[in-house]
């Protein structure tokens, strides 16, 4: 400043007016930029709202299931006509239980039991699962035979859809899945209060089924749980150990640069490639069973590792060097410095990265298709070595089903998956908070 | 603070100064960062119970020299040290020397206060814990209290030992770092511009503290402030462009230096 006055008058560079215009322009640019930002966020929120609205509006009905209460007469004539059950236990297993339910329904609606067409139509209104349901009642307590008990049975998928108003009644009767007479019965039952919508616990606990009313994500949930457990147990320690070594111990040279580039590339490899790798290595070479969640877990571990390593290295890098210097200066060994000071400070970042990786793995479908987890599994897997499916694969399979009732169940399963992802992300936030509170 | 009264400190020091034993000494110390040489054949002796100030313009190598004294340079990739640096006659770069033990004997206080993000108590107790200096809670309590007292921080923090060390003011944090260094009972304390991030009042507190610590420790301090060097040190070493320009009694250095470059630097003609 003083130099200018020493050199004579100020050179004419910028008049005050021009400077004002510059400032206005700068402010305008800033306002514009903020507007772009708000628009971008609004755009994102709009699509998120659209997604949630579309899934929830289609899927919320999946959490209700139409049930019919009918007084079923456990007639000995149908179950055990030759009275051999004392000697042959198979009799009770093989009895024609659906007939009991059908006849009960016919009686309830006042339909003549000799009208075969009507009986056939009635039969299609009750879910096939009634066979197992009634059989279980009899097997648990054979003394029920000869008595009449009111049982709540599942309505068949099309009845469920019709009762929820999802079937277009303007379609000609012959093209509909449910005819006018059946509709009349539905109304008749509903008016009596025998046909009601109840909370659908089945969708959470049942395994795969070709009948939508009896299908659930139970097996898929167990399969996904096993896989997440395997991913967590393998990927977290391996990933953290690899990151600590690379970040704190490894010399910086060509080799470690190469490793770093490769890890970053692996994070971007399409998941289907990991699926093929898993198929080749774990199933064909190592001989692990197909469709098993252990293979899925291993494949997802491979897929999640780069994500965890990258997140952990970033978290370790973010720990101020002054903390390391302080510990080393006190005479702590490198190991003590890392485990006493650096790792605890990096923990929130590591956990966030891990949970994001896990959430990613939870929603991964493509590699699981290749290792055979896209299977019809009706029974719960007792161990990770038994066949199972996963939540996203279950969604994929249901989305391919033709029946109307599977549409809402597909959306219902998506809601369940999203809830799990939400829970995991909330968990990440809580863990982060807890660790950060330790300053 | 005020563990020892002013006169008592002087008396102890006078007795020890007369012995003027060498605590550490560097012979032909050269330091390289990769291809770049940062120090050229530095020969410098550090006397026991003396505050030695290292001065010089930025980038002259004074911090580099300081960090060779407890081998903190080891943590920097491609840093290489030649020559001989000894602590009580032992070469500290000898392969048989354990760097962990060396740093327990030669402590360090950094330019920016860097307390651990833990409680005040844990900050001080950490060093003794990893070196096994205390066996039970009572012994830890004692070390923590005496260290904080030596750092003149006890009265300010005794009621909040469980609060985070990072919540203290800058000057208090730096004294906490000094207490943390003192807690391991080192023989030498290295200070790398310990007051550059502090305000004048906090600086005065730390300088007072350095003066008191001199009774029990050998101190090497890097500083950019001529006045600070003049106030706290007995010996001063002037570095310039990787060379040790002059080493002298502080009184002589600031009144009648032997070297023209020292004269120029102290007068503020360069640097």
UniProtKB/TrEMBL annotation, chain A:
Which molecular function terms from Gene Ontology are attached? phosphate transmembrane transporter activity
Q: Return the GO cellular component terms, semicolon-separated.
A: plasma membrane
Transmembrane parts of this sequence: 33-56, 225-246, 266-288, 294-316, 337-362, 412-431
Q: Which interval of the chain is the signal sequence?
A: none
Cellular compartments annotated: Cell inner membrane; Cell membrane
Membrane topology of this protein = Multi-pass membrane protein
Please name the InterPro entries in this protein's record: DUF3333, MetI-like, MetI-like_sf, Phosphate_PstA
Q: Which GO terms describe its biological process?
A: phosphate ion transmembrane transport
Q: Which UniProt keywords apply?
A: Cell membrane, Membrane, Transmembrane, Transmembrane helix, Transport
Q: Could you say which protein family the record assigns here?
A: Belongs to the binding-protein-dependent transport system permease family. CysTW subfamily.
Name of the protein in its database record: Phosphate transport system permease protein PstA
**Organism from which the protein derives:** Allorhizobium borbori
Q: What is the lineage of its organism?
A: Bacteria, Pseudomonadati, Pseudomonadota, Alphaproteobacteria, Hyphomicrobiales
From TrEMBL, chain B:
Listed SMART domains = AAA (SM00382)
| Listed GO CC annotations | membrane
InterPro entries found in the cross-reference section: AAA+_ATPase (IPR003593), ABC_transporter-like_ATP-bd (IPR003439), ABC_transporter-like_CS (IPR017871), P-loop_NTPase (IPR027417), PstB-like (IPR005670)
| UniProt keyword ATP-binding present | yes
Q: Which residues form the ABC transporter domain?
A: 24-266
BP GO annotations: phosphate ion transmembrane transport
Q: Where do the TM regions start and end? A: none
What are the entry keywords?
ATP-binding, Nucleotide-binding, Phosphate transport, Transport
List, alphabetically, the NCBIfam families matched. Answer: 3a0107s01c2
> Which family does the entry's similarity section mention?
Belongs to the ABC transporter superfamily.
Name assigned to this protein: Phosphate transport system ATP-binding protein
Q: Give the originating organism.
A: Allorhizobium borbori
Q: Lineage of the source organism?
A: Bacteria, Pseudomonadati, Pseudomonadota, Alphaproteobacteria, Hyphomicrobiales
């Amino acid at each position: 400043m003083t130099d200018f006055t020493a050199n004579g008058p100020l050179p004419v560079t910028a008049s005050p007016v021009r400077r004002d215009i510059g400032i206005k322009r700068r402010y305008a640019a800033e306002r514009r930029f903020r507007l772009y930002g708000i628009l971008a966020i609004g755009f994102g929120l709009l699509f998120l709202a659209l997604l949630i609205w579309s899934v929830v509006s289609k899927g919320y009905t999946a959490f209700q299931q139409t049930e019919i209460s009918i007084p079923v007469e456990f007639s000995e004539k149908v179950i055990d006509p030759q009275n051999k059950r004392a000697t042959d236990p198979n009799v009770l297993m093989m009895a024609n239980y659906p007939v009991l339910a059908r006849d009960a329904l016919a009686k309830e609606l006042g339909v003549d039991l000799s009208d075969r067409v009507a009986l056939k139509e009635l039969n299609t209104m009750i879910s096939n699962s009634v066979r197992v349901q009634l059989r279980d009642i009899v097997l648990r307590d054979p003394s029920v035979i000869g008595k009449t008990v009111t049982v709540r049975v599942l309505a068949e998928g099309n009845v469920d859809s019709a009762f929820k108003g999802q079937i277009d009644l303007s379609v000609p009767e012959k093209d509909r899945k449910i005819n006018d007479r059946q509709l009349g019965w539905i109304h008749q039952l509903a008016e009596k209060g025998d046909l009601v919508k109840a909370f659908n616990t089945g969708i959470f606990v049942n395994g795969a089924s070709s009948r939508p009313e009896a299908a659930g994500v139970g097996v898929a949930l167990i399969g996904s749980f096993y896989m997440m457990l395997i991913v967590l147990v393998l990927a977290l320690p391996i990933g953290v150990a690899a990151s600590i070594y690379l970040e704190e111990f490894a010399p910086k040279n060509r080799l470690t640069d190469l490793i770093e580039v490769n890890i970053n590339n692996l994070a971007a490899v399409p998941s289907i490639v990991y699926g093929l790798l898993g198929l080749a290595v774990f199933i064909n070479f190592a001989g692990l069973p197909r469709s098993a969640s252990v293979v899925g877990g291993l494949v997802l571990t491979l897929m999640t590792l780069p994500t965890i390593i990258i997140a952990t290295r970033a978290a370790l890098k973010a720990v101020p060097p002054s903390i390391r210097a302080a510990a080393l200066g006190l005479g702590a060994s490198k190991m003590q410095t890392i485990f006493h000071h650096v790792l605890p400070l990096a923990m929130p970042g590591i956990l966030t990265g891990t949970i994001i990786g896990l959430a990613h793995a939870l929603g991964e479908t493509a590699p699981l298709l290749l290792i055979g987890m896209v299977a019809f599994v009706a029974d719960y897997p007792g161990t990770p070595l038994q066949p199972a499916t996963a939540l996203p694969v279950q969604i994929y399979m249901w989305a391919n089903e033709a029946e109307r009732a599977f549409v809402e169940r597909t959306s219902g399963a998506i809601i369940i998956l999203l809830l799990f992802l939400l829970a995991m992300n909330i968990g990440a936030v809580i863990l982060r908070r807890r660790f950060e509170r330790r300053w | 603070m005020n563990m020892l009264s002013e006169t008592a400190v002087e008396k102890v020091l006078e007795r020890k100064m007369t012995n003027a034993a060498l605590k550490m000494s560097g012979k032909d110390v050269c330091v390289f960062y990769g291809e770049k040489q940062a120090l050229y054949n530095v020969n410098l002796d550090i006397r026991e119970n003396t505050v030695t100030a290292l001065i010089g313009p930025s980038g002259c190598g004074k911090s580099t020299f300081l960090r060779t004294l407890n081998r903190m340079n080891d943590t920097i990739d491609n840093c290489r040290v030649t020559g001989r640096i000894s602590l009580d006659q032992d070469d500290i770069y000898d392969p048989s020397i354990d760097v962990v033990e060396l740093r327990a004997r030669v402590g360090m206080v950094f330019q920016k206060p860097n307390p651990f993000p833990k409680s005040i108590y844990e900050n001080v107790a950490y060093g003794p814990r990893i070196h096994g200096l205390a066996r039970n809670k009572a012994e830890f309590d004692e070390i923590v209290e005496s260290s904080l007292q030596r750092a003149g921080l006890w009265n300010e923090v005794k009621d909040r030992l469980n609060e985070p060390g990072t919540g203290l003011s800058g000057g208090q944090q730096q004294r906490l770092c000094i207490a943390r260094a003192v807690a391991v009972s080192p023989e030498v304390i290295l200070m790398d511009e310990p007051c550059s991030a502090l305000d004048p009042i906090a600086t005065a507190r730390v300088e007072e503290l350095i003066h008191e610590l001199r009774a029990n420790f050998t101190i090497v301090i890097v500083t950019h402030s001529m006045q600070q060097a003049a106030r706290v040190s007995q010996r001063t070493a002037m570095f310039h462009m990787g060379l040790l320009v002059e080493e002298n009694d502080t009184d002589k250095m600031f009144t009648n230096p032997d070297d023209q470059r020292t004269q120029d630097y102290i007068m503020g003609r360069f640097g």
